[in-house]
Amino acid sequence: MLQLFLLAIFVVFLSTPAVASQVSITVDDFNLSSEIGMEPLKRNAAILAALKKHKIKAAGFVTTKYLNDSKAVEAVKEWSSSGHVIGNHTENHWKYNDKTPAEFSADIIAAENKLKPFATFKKIFRFPYLKEGETLEKRDTLRSFLKNNGYSNGHVSIDASDWYINMRLVEKLKKGESVNLEKYKNFYLKHIWDRSEYYSKLARKTLNHDIKHTLLLHHNLTTALFLDDLLKMYQEKGWKVIDAENAFMDPTYSRSSDNIPAGESIVWALAKQMGDKSLRYPAEDSVYEKDEMDKLGL
Ligand SMILES: [Zn+2]
Questions:
Q1: How confident is the model over 149-181, as pLDDT tens digits?
Q2: How far is the CA of 93 from the centre of ligand 1 (A)?
Q3: CATH homologous superfamily for 19-296?
Q4: Predicted structure pTM score
């Protein structure tokens, strides 16, 4: 009996991860033009309030064409004065695969010039759509450009489709249809948790250890509505929420893979390079969520 008891304790000990998984929040684009569901600056305030409540600093990757709207300028100012990192997400949000290296790097510099005045701006760059080049030459030209200009890659580790859930919610609201926000929230939390577990497992399988994660979200209605619940969920599941700057210090973020086309989550890219046959491409997209959302009437 005693042996059984000791064995049970041992099994529990083995199955408990020694270190809790860690996750940080990164928020892309800063398109504040939509008034649907919540006023844009209220949306911004809700996102900042959730981060403050959970005592973490995020990273905001700004596409600077949106700064033509004074509300977006106001939002980025508030992010900066609250101590959140501001990163570069190009001027025009082009897909690199559709542009030449010269066009694309000029677009990065154009964004940099607009972001420099913000106190917490850092030379950290996130590729729109996480697409880093479809040929070896284009991939390497941009990598050299970023390096020569002092940039690090603001990799995503946990990729997800928050933008798609948001898009469907906003479309319903636009049509004046009644929506059950609780159902959207549940689907959103389930989706992000599913992707978090997936990329955490993939990291352990590929690198033999978990990493400090960077979750990709967008500056949109679902982030404003559900970020607080999302951060709560992570903690309830035993994950630690951390500052984005801390996460980006994980050495995994200075790694790059040899894949062509280049891009996607850094965890996905490193797994792909190692010949993992279980990976889908693209790693994340609306098609993977559509049927389930249709079925649920979301
Ligand atoms: Zn983006």
A1: 999 999 999 999 999 999 999 999 999 999 999
A2: 6
A3: Glycoside hydrolase/deacetylase (3.20.20.370)
A4: 0.93
